[in-house]
Design a protein that fits this description.
Protein name: Histidine phosphatase family protein
Distance between the termini: 7 Å
Structural class: alpha/beta
Radius of gyration: 15 Å
Pfam family, one: His_Phos_1
Number of domains: 1
CATH class: Alpha Beta
Largest sheet: 5 strands, mixed
Strand order of the largest sheet: 5-4-6-1-7
Strand content: 5-15%
Length: about 170
């Protein structure tokens, strides 16, 4: 069994809307299709995704099969729709101080971890012995990889993730 954590494709930012409401940018569909054709995802797997529109659309472009939508796979809640100039700095602050909000409207990253990691473990328990593909979000997946491998969150790996991209956890 292998876990494939897919980061959604390029979103279409809408000023005044939180990122959780953004759709997938049609200009980035080719990148998602390229991932589909790359051979980096299993031919047969149990598929699930975050409920965020960009994640659902990415999953729909990646597979013809059924995709379960799991609310607990959503990204760190970032309800403030204000554009953040130093987004990377805010994310790094979130990981440095996981029990506090790194920016107005953001849930502490520990809250995201405490929601996403158990959800992933439940999926893995139910689908033991099967390949699993989860489509969601970069910071959530960095938290999952750290929890499942017993390592510290790798923010350099987070920074290097493309839109879309895949992290593989054997």
């Amino acid at each position: 069994m292998t876990l494939h954590l897919v980061r959604h494709g390029r979103p279409l930012p809408v000023p005044g809307q939180p990122a959780s409401a953004w759709e997938l940018d049609p200009a980035g569909f080719d990148d998602v299709w390229a991932l589909r054709e790359s051979g980096r995802l299993p031919a047969r797997a149990a598929w699930f995704c975050s409920p965020e529109p960009k994640a659902v659309a990415t999953a729909q472009l990646l597979t013809e099969g059924d995709v379960g939508i799991l609310d607990d796979l959503r990204e760190q809640v970032r309800d403030d729709a204000v554009w953040i100039e130093d987004f990377e700095g805010a994310v790094r602050r979130a990981f440095a101080e996981p029990d506090t909000s790194a920016h107005r409207g953001w849930e502490p990253i520990s809250t995201c971890r405490d929601r996403v990691v158990p959800a992933v473990r439940r999926v893995l328990d139910v689908h033991a012995g099967e390949d699993v593909v989860l489509v969601g979000h970069g910071t959530a997946w960095i938290l999952v990889v750290a929890a499942l491998t017993g390592t510290e969150p790798d923010l350099d790996r987070w920074r290097a993730l493309a839109l879309p991209d895949v992290l593989v956890v054997p």
